[in-house]
What does this fold into?
Amino acid sequence: MKAAENPNQPYYPWESLEEFELVDWLASSGLLQVKINKFLALAWTQHSPLSFHTAKSMYECIEKYMPKAPGWKRKTIILDDTLTEPQTFLY
It folds into this structure.
C-alpha cells in the first residue's frame, strides 16, 4: 500500500478520494466479507488500482491506520434516596 507509507498523502492510508469513498461505502454497507470479496473479484475492480484486494486486508488497514473511537467510562454512585440501589452511569 503506497499511500500507507506516506502519512502526508491527503487520503492516507488510501490511494485516492475514490478509493477512500469505496472503502467508506464497503465498510459501512453491512455487506458480509464474502460479498465484499466477490465484488473485489469482479473484472471491473481488477482494472482499478486498489491498494487492497480482499475484505480482510481492507479491514486490517482500517484497524491499523484509522483513529480509534473513544472508550466508554463508567461511574457508580449511590443516591441518598436509594442507598441499597447503586446507579451505574456509562458515558
User: Anything to note?
Assistant: The mean pLDDT is 89.
